[in-house]
Amino acid sequence: MKRSVEELRSEADWLAAIGEPTRLTIIRTLAIGEKTVTELAKACKSEVVNVSHHLGVMRAAGLVKCDRDGRFMRYSLLGASATATELELTHPLGVRTTIPLV
Question: What is the pTM of this model?
């Protein structure tokens, strides 16, 4: 199946959003459940502003979503399924990647 330029860009942006060390930590942390930016910053041992930036990139790529919970925003993964040892992420157009969780 031939992909349009827009579809290819979407897939490339999605893969790029995964391929960064802090973002991989965020992904692994979200694999166990939704978290706030503060909780993610603690898990990443990073500043909230840095984690917020990474979450913005990940949201734009369609990798995470956020929902309001009172005064907090809770983030979760989109297109994810986890086992005890690995996480499979699936882009809406079908591209998949597997990330080890152990």
Answer: 0.93
